[in-house]
TrEMBL record:
SMART domains: AAA
PROSITE patterns: ABC_TRANSPORTER_1 (PS00211), ABC_TRANSPORTER_2 (PS50893)
Keyword Protein biosynthesis attributed: no
CDD domains: ABC_PstB_phosphate_transporter
Organism: Paenirhodobacter enshiensis
Membrane topology summary: Peripheral membrane protein
Purpose of the protein: Part of the ABC transporter complex PstSACB involved in phosphate import. Responsible for energy coupling to the transport system.
Compartments where located: Cell inner membrane
UniProt-recorded name of the protein: Phosphate ABC transporter ATP-binding protein
Keyword Translocase annotated: yes
GO molecular function: ATP binding; ATP hydrolysis activity; phosphate transmembrane transporter activity
SUPFAM superfamilies: P-loop containing nucleoside triphosphate hydrolases (SSF52540)
Xref: Gene3D superfamilies: P-loop containing nucleotide triphosphate hydrolases (3.40.50.300)
Chief place where the protein resides: membrane
Length: 265
C-alpha cells in the first residue's frame, strides 16, 4: 500500500468524538468565546494555541462543563459527546467528568494520601470490585503518569507533600485512573522540568491510541511534537483549525502566521 492510501486509512479510523456547535461563553457581559464550531476527533491529540486571554481555557472547560462551577459564566450552543449534548438536563456533570477528565495548569492534589488521590475516581464511580483490583488501577495509573518509581514506597504519604512536578504527575494519574474517553489538559507541563515534560508527552502519545486528548499549550514546539490537529484561538474566536503540520507550515490566516512566527502574543 502506498503512503497516500495508508494515510487515508488512518484518517478513516478517526471519528468525531466531540462536536461543538455555535458555542458562546460569557462572563457577565464579557463575551469570552464567540460562535465556536469545531469537531474534535477520537484517537487524536488536538492542541489549542493562541495568545494569553484568547479563551483557550474557557473553551476547554466547556467540554466537560467545568464552567458550571463559575457562577457568572454562561454557556450557549451545543457540545455533543458521541452525538449527545452534554448540556442536556439529564446529563450528570459528575458522571460526565469521569468520561471527560481534566488536568489543570496548577497541580491541585486532594488533601489525601498519594494512593487515595489516584483511587478517588475509581472509588466514587465503583470501577473496581476489590482492593487488589484497586491497587492494580492505582499502580497502572501512576506508571502511565511516570510517577510510580518515585512514590511506590510512600503511597500513604500526603499528595500535597510532593514536589510541584510530582504533584502534576499525580493529578495526571488521578485523571487517567477512571480511563476517561477524553482527557483535557490545560498547560499540563508548565510546572514540569524537561524530563517530566518528555514523559508526559510520551504518555499523551500513548493515550492517543485509545482516547481523544485536548491540550492547551503555549509551547509551539510541544504542539508540533504531540498533536495531529491544532486549533488557533484569537480574541475569543477560533481563527483556524486543521492538521498540525499545515497550521505550522502553511497557515491560511495571517493572524495564525503572526502568532506562530512570534509577532503576536
Ligand atoms: N472566572 C472568570 N471570570 C471572569 N472573566 C474570566 C474568568 N476566566 C477567564 N475570564 C476572561 O475570559 C477571557 C479568556 O480567558 P481564558 O482564561 O480562557 O484565556 P486563555 O487563553 O486560557 O489565557 P492564558 O493563556 O493566559 O491561560 C479573558 O478575558 C479572561 O479575563
Ligand atoms: Mg488558560
Amino acid at each position: 500500500m502506498n503512503d497516500m492510501r495508508l494515510m487515508e486509512r488512518v484518517v478513516d479510523d478517526t471519528r468525531i468524538k466531540i462536536s461543538a456547535k455555535d458555542v458562546q461563553v460569557w462572563y457577565g457581559d464579557s463575551h469570552a468565546i464567540k460562535d465556536v464550531n469545531i469537531d474534535i476527533l477520537d484517537k487524536t491529540v488536538t492542541a489549542f494555541i493562541g495568545p494569553s486571554g484568547c479563551g483557550k481555557s474557557t473553551f476547554l472547560r466547556t467540554l466537560n462543563r467545568m464552567n458550571d462551577t463559575i457562577p457568572i459564566c454562561r454557556v450557549e450552543g451545543e457540545i455533543l459527546l458521541d452525538g449527545e449534548n452534554i448540556y442536556d438536563r439529564k446529563v450528570d456533570p459528575v458522571q460526565l467528568r469521569a468520561r471527560v477528565g481534566m488536568v489543570f495548569q496548577k497541580p491541585n492534589p486532594f488533601p489525601k494520601s498519594i494512593y487515595d488521590n489516584v483511587a478517588y475516581g475509581p472509588r466514587i464511580h465503583g470501577l473496581t470490585r476489590n482492593k487488589a483490583e484497586l491497587d492494580e488501577v492505582v499502580e497502572s495509573a501512576l506508571k502511565k503518569a511516570a510517577l510510580w518509581k518515585e512514590v511506590k514506597d510512600r503511597l500513604t504519604a500526603p499528595g500535597t507533600g510532593l514536589s510541584g512536578g510530582q504533584q502534576q504527575r499525580l493529578c495526571i494519574a488521578r485523571a487517567v485512573a477512571t480511563s476517561p474517553e477524553v482527557l483535557l489538559m490545560d498547560e499540563p507541563c508548565s510546572a514540569l522540568d524537561p524530563i517530566a515534560t518528555a514523559q508526559v508527552e510520551e504518555l499523551i502519545d500513548e493515550l492517543r491510541e485509545n482516547f481523544s486528548v485536548v491540550i492547551v499549550t503555549h509551547s509551539m514546539q510541544q504542539a508540533a511534537r504531540v498533536s495531529q490537529k491544532t486549533a488557533f484561538f484569537h480574541m475569543g474566536n477560533l481563527v483556524e483549525y486543521g492538521d498540525t503540520t499545515q497550521i505550522f507550515t502553511k497557515p491560511s490566516d495571517p493572524r495564525t502566521e503572526s502568532y506562530i512566527t512570534g509577532r503576536i502574543g
